[in-house]
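CHAIN AND CONFORMATION:

***
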Amino acid sequence: MTGFWQDVRYGLRVLGKNPGFAAIAVLTLALGIGANTALFSVVNGVLLSPLPFPNPDELLAVYSKTGTFQESSIAYPNFLDWQKDNHSFAALSAFRSDDYNMVGPGDPERVHIHMISAEFFPALGLQPLLGRAFRPEEDRAGAGPVTILGDGLWKRKFGMSQDVLGKNITLNGKSYTIVGVAPGRITGLSPTDVYTPIGQWTDPTFRDRRISMGMNSIGRLKPGVTIEQARADMNRIAENLAAAYPEADKGTGVALIPLKADVVGNVKGLLLVLLGAVSFVLLIACANVANLLLARSTGRTREFAIRAALGASPARVIRQLLTESVLLGIAGGCIGLLLAKLGVRVLLATLASNVPRSEEIALDGHVLLYTLGISVLTGIVFGLIPALKTLRPDTHETLKEGGRGSSGARHRTQSVFIVVEMAMAVVPLIGAGLMIRTLSALGGINPGFDAHNVLTFAISSTSNSAAEPNQLRAMYRETLRQLQSVRGVETISMMGGSLPMTGDSEVPFWLEGQPQPANNNDMPFALFYLVNPDYHRAMRIPVERGRSFTERDDEHGPSVALIDATFARKYFPNQDPIGKHVNVGLLDMQPEIVGVVGHVEHWGLGSREHQNLQAQLYLPVWQTPDRFWPLLANGSGYVARTTGNTGDITGAIRQGAERVASSAVLFDVRPMEEIVARSISTQRLTMFLLSVFSALALLLSAVGIYGVISYLTGQRTQEIGVRVALGASRNDVMRMVLGEGMRITLIGVGIGLGAALGLTRLITTLIYGVGTTDPITFGSVALLLSGVALFACYIPARRAVRVDPIAALRYE
């Protein structure tokens, strides 16, 4: 330890005597370490940290599984049977999300709720902050309405009052008694204002075994039960249900997924790609600092020779040099940690809506240990090779040289470092280039509608909850009349079911003239949209054949439907679908097809998801069966085409809705252009981050090659003077210096292009409209990096051609 502290003190003195070198080295490392630490904090919070529940490995996400949907929501009657008959779960809970109108302290507002079963909090191992969880007898129809507040609503509406228990709030016109306050945001759920017992929901559709209504499940395994055993147990139950209820459950299985994997979803690949890209930045920084140390060690060869002459062993010299490099690494890590703190804020601002568990991203103890580890490791990595290169076997010759020494081996090593830097810079640059090309291709996709000047929103009123279907139809007709009269509204339509690029609703069907399949799972599925006659005009979806809906297509007219071009092509090949009928069993409808409209990119621009669910079916909203109107009453959606800025008419729309119902609440207001942009947000985010990392890599590589060429040119000052004295022209000297720099560059670029050919396959799922070996991207990156390197080499080359031959011949 005495020797160690002696090395540390001496290393600090040496670095203190060279503040310029130390500052450049520390800043270079800080950029690389800071970027790595910031991204590792995201990887740690999202992928590595366990879920914040007791024994999180026991938690599974439970889904229904059919031939069409491998992971789909669950019918409530099936869940009750799963819960009753399974032998694998200590607790099996259900939940679904919705939005309700709330009347309580302050103004009425729209709140986000989660309907949960009584086992929900016990399954997760959570306890309410105040009060209690729901009791089993409260989780059934007819029980007294009770609710648990989310902690955000508790703080916002009740000022964190401790006597909130027993008070009442009104949700959709019904009074609920507060029995508890939930802990903070629960991983895997969207932010929740209110929890209600799911078993109290009396909508008849929810009790239909054929319909799932967006309900999902989380289960906690019994101790000692494996996921394979639970899967076999649940499949046994599914087989029994298929035999008992063949129409609804034949072909339905159960999918079990570790809850953490379900929460993280497909973001794992994206984060690992970004972590790999930023690791290249750190390696480039290490190579830069190693080159600096090599250049600096040239002036210290006499010092090392004297040490060796006085008896210092090679290992002792290496230890001293490694101590200095590790000190640089730790200093770079400390500053990098400050940069990472700022970087995490930027990442949270850009990642929050794209990455799950974003609320758990922080610079915690694991991240600090990671930073310390990579700081020490980088110090060893970039210090070891220069340290080994300083060992001179011939001390006598070194002392005679006066400390100048031969530098041929160092030159070769420095050139190798530059080759490595260039090769590593190519990979993130090509990744960024492919993402730029992807966004360009996605921008050229026709979404099937015109999103410009289209506003989407929803309206709900507490007066809707007790209204009859015909009363609701009359109310919504009046609402449409009021909203159509708003200044700036060109066309408006009410809608239900699916909205492009947001929520989805699917319905099984079979075609006229074909036998009815034995069960729902044997039927094809289509996305369905409930719309008014002006919907396609508002969205500017073209009618390709037949007609659109008219005012005559109401509850008194014959049942009609529109299909999209994909539906027509898939189910009516070489036929005219106009006049044919579609049987929609769940809706008890057999509408006649009266028109074919253009296909809408419902799943997002360029999305590869749900390729087996592209067919689209439109039904008139007024013809919705009476039993489904309570669902529409909870919150009706609208799309409005405006004559100007969509943000300018929100207040007027709210006033129009309030003229129909004073308790009306306007919510979920979003421009359609924003929805379209959000559909490619993952690609845009990837491009942004890869571009940032690529810019850092390009900057560090340019600085690195500039430093090496400057150093090598300085070492050849006498040689250049001799060449000029013997008649070499300035152009000859320029070509010599540039040629040496570009030779190193092109070797590195060539190696990098070869590596990128394999590594770009990792982002196959993120790119669209361009191949992983796109020649335009590869060629552009090669030209860009070569151009930057040429500029970096030009400055020392220009300095070289100005060498005075007489001064050069007297050099040293």
Q: What stands out?
A: Residues 71 and 254 are 8 Å apart (CA to CA). The first helix runs from residue 2 to 16. The radius of gyration is 34 Å.
